[in-house]
Amino acid sequence: MSAQPKLAWQEVHKRFEGAPVLDGLDLSVPAGRSLVIIGGSGQGKSVTLKLALGLMQPDAGRILLDGEDITGLPGPAKRRLSSRFGVLFQGAALFDSLRVWENVAFRLINADGTPRGPARERAVEAMARVRLDASVADLYPGELSGGMQKRVGLARAVVATPEILFFDEPTTGLDPITAAAINALIIEQVRRLGCTAVSITHDLASARTIGDEIVLLNAGRIVWRGGPDELDTTDDPQVRQFVDGRADGPLTRPG
């Protein structure tokens, strides 16, 4: 008997203005594994993450965490559930009016009720794990480079030791050297926590680096799944079109 997945989407459907975005999505992630979702724009990658995070509700289907249906939880239960997740948002999504340590400790202070002193200590500890010096703690996000802002976002994602980490385009807008550094930090933090990770990205170099497995999402369904090394060896026409960056082929175009 196969082990129960940590997170699963079962026959999930989602439409916007009548147009299907997810069309019976079936996807599961084993505990302790890093799964990367790739695919073209408008194929449902971000919606897949938002549904798991409870930021959206599916029109049909279920989302399971450790075998329990978490679809449509009421407010208090949803807030408890969110404490098990950590998220690195695209562009880091930091609060410009808060200092770096306050951004990292935002959930500790505002959701967990941690006093500011201990919250700051935990924030600085999390910053150290992503190679940010304590001297950065009292700066504002606007005083940091894009790569440093990503590190702050990663520190915020891991500060509460989550069970599942979600990464939304973690290397978007970064130069190749900085992107490689962020990828290395992601791998390090996932292994340190022993957690499950789900990422979405257009960056194939990042996907190959951080993923134990990669899935290709097209027209709201998973059309291919394999290891990073298989991206370059599979003869699947949809994978070949995406990896080779060809306009013509079987992949669906948005709009």
Describe the secondary-structure layout.
Layout: E1 7-16, E2 19-29, E3 34-38, H1 45-53, E4 60-65, E5 68-69, H2 75-82, E6 85-88, H3 100-104, H4 106-110, H5 116-129, H6 146-158, E7 164-168, H7 176-193, E8 196-200, H8 204-210, E9 213-218, E10 221-226, H9 237-244
Parallel strand pairs: 3-8, 3-9, 6-7, 7-8
Antiparallel strand pairs: 1-2, 1-4, 4-5, 9-10
Helix pairs in contact: 5-6, 6-7
Give a quick set of tags describing it.
alpha/beta; 9 helices; six-stranded mixed beta sheet; about 260 residues
Describe the structure.
The protein is α/β, with parallel strands linked by helices and 255 residues long. Helices cover 34% and strands 24% of the residues. The strands form 2 sheets. It has a 6-stranded mixed sheet, sandwiched between helices. It has a 4-stranded antiparallel sheet with strand order 2-1-4-5, with helices on one face. Helix 5 crosses helix 6 (146-158) and helix 6 runs parallel beside helix 7. The longest helix is centred in the last third of the chain and has 18 residues, at 176-193.
